[in-house]
Amino acid sequence: MAWRIRDRSTFEVLSRTGRRSRRGHVTVTYARCGDDRPYVAYAVGRHAGGAVVRNRLRRRLRAAVDAVAGALPPGAYVVSVGRGAGGIPCEDLKADVTAAMTSASEDGRR
Q1: Could you give all domains of the chain from N- to C-terminal order, each with its CATH number?
Q2: Cβ-based burial of 53 (10 A; exposed 0-12, middle 13-18, buried ≥19)
Q3: What is the pLDDT of residues 90-99, one digit of tens each?
Q4: 21-66: pLDDT as tens digits
Q5: Quick one: which of 45, 60, 52 has its CA closest to 98?
Q6: With 80 as the cut, is the pLDDT of residue 1 above it?
Q7: Which residues 6+ apart lie within 8 Å of 9 measured at CB?
Q8: Which of 75, 58, 102 is nearest to 2 (CA)?
């Protein structure tokens, strides 16, 4: 299970030192901070579509992250999507999220 990012200082660390990885419509920013568990925030802007589309995307992103949360290294992640993400199939979105999170956290370990 991934925990929610709730404090401003974590977002500042992500902004300053975060490593980014992009796969398809998904961009993940990762920073090693916090305790021994993964923390996740979701950024789905208005460019993704109307409120219904954005909320559906957020739910799909949460499900994709929950599927891989046990294998994630500890740290903070921000998962964001680009234009057109609402139209891709769930399995493709899940594959993009998994690949981007893995790549971002591996780059962060070096």
Answers
A1: 3-109 (3.30.230.10)
A2: middle
A3: 999 999 999 9
A4: 999 999 999 999 877 889 999 999 999 999 999 999 999 999 999 9
A5: 60
A6: no
A7: none
A8: 75
Cα distance between residue 13 and residue 105, in whole Å? 15
For 56, residues 6+ apart whose C-beta sits below 8 A from its C-beta are 86
| Euclidean distance between CA atoms 29 and 41, whole angstroms | 10
Consecutive H or E run containing 12:
helix 8-17
Note the pTM of the prediction, 2 decimals: 0.88
What's the N-to-C CA distance of the chain in angstroms? 25
